[in-house]
Amino acid sequence: MISTFSFSYPWWYICFCLALAVGYAFLMYFRDKRFAEYSHFFVKSLGVLRTLSVFIIALLLLSPFVKTIKEDTKTPIILIASDISESIAEGESSLELNNYNKELDGLSETLASKYEVKHVSFGSDVYTGQKDSLGDKSTNISKFFRYVADNYSDQNLGAVILGTDGIFNEGSNPLYANEKINAPLYTIALGDTLQKKDLYFQNVLHNKIAYLGDKFPVQVDLSAFNCEGGNTKLTLEIISGGQARKLAEENININSKSFFATRTFIIDAAQTGVVRYRLKLSSLAGEFNSNNNVKEFFVEILDGR
Questions:
Q1: Which one of 8, 152, 233, 285 is separated from 93 by 20 to 30 angstroms, measured CA to CA?
Q2: What is the spatial order of strands in the sheet that 77-83 belongs to?
Q3: 175 CB-contact burial (10 Å; exposed 0-12 / middle 13-18 / buried 19+)
Q4: What are phi and psi of 186, to 5 degrees?
Q5: How much of the chain is in helix, strand and coil states, percent to nearest 5?
Q6: pLDDT digits (tens, 9 = 90+) for 1-56
Q7: Segment holding 2, helix H or strand E
Q8: Per-residue b/e over 184-205, b at no fewer than 16 CB within 10 Å?
């Protein structure tokens, strides 16, 4: 801890305060004839005391303060992130996964001697701690990067270790999502890193609240990998009383290896309450994962503004 004495005004003001105090004492005790009858030593003593008192009062008017600097050294954080999506389990044998988990535990113990080690898991969402189950049906790597930026941007983050197969079917491209992480990023390649034939919803944008009788838009972003030449049917349904009713349908031709398309539906707010909607993409022959061909969302419809 380092403490320093400072003022709210420039330091040269102190010289002005000293000159003021000396001048005041001189005028009061050495120019005034009333003190002529006293001894020279007594007058000089009074002058010194008056100088000190005026000088101290003047210094206090400069708003002095004590500035304390405290150094707090924080241990760097090493963040270890594990992909827990189903594609990891499909690309690795149980023996390989067990070996990986053991090696990861050993790495954590080694790093813990010098760093603060934290674990997170991610798939469709981000979870604190290390989860053993590999059950998430989608992978959103960009959401993990946003989590790191939101939670560790003001901390002493030393490095991020990312174990994943790199396959994502939700969110934006992680190549452009990690720019906000101000720490080295190290990756551990897991599973089968080849991009499989897959069709999925990348994003669905919609109102959280709508009003009865109004219309509201729903933007659907969908992507496809290695599906060139295929044709899929995009269907929008409303779920009420456990029954699905079709609201709209559109055929989509996939004309590139890395395909992206945006479609917008306009929905009538015809009933009040929290309304459940479902989007579906018809599966393609040879598609690796069809579980991500369905996306549901909810809109609260209010009666009156």
A1: 285
A2: 126-128, 116-122, 77-83, 157-164, 185-189
A3: exposed
A4: -115, 135
A5: 25, 40, 35
A6: 677 777 777 877 888 878 887 887 777 766 666 666 667 777 677 778 878 888 88
A7: strand 2-6
A8: eeeebebbeeebbbbbbbbeee
Nearest C-alpha neighbor of 164 from the set 195, 187, 140: 187
d(CA 263, CA 243): 24
Residues 167, 249, single domain; the answer is no
The set of residues, in sequence order, having a beta carbon less than 8 Å from that of 258 and lying 6+ positions away, is: 223, 224, 225
pLDDT confidence bin for 93, thresholds 50/70/90: low
Taken in order 49, 51, 53, 56, the sign of the CA dihedral is: negative
Kind and range of the H or E run holding 122? strand 116-122
- Is the model's pTM score more than 0.90? no
Q: Which amino acid is at 57?
A: I
Which amino acid, 242?
A: G
**What is d(CA 265, CA 299) in angstroms, rounded to the nearest whole number?**
14
* Three-state secondary-structure class, residue 61: helix
Give the range of the structural domain holding residue 36, as residue numbers without chain letter: 2-69
Cβ-contact 301, 275 below 8 angstroms: yes
Six-digit token string for 235: 């269907």
Of the candidates 69, 89, 113, which is a domain's last residue?
Answer: 69
CB 305 within 8 A of CB 151: no
Tell me how many domains the chain contains.
3
Separation of alpha carbons 59 and 20, rounded Å: 11
Q: If pLDDT is split at 50, 70 and 90, which confidence band does 80 have?
A: very high
Residues 216 and 289 in one domain: yes
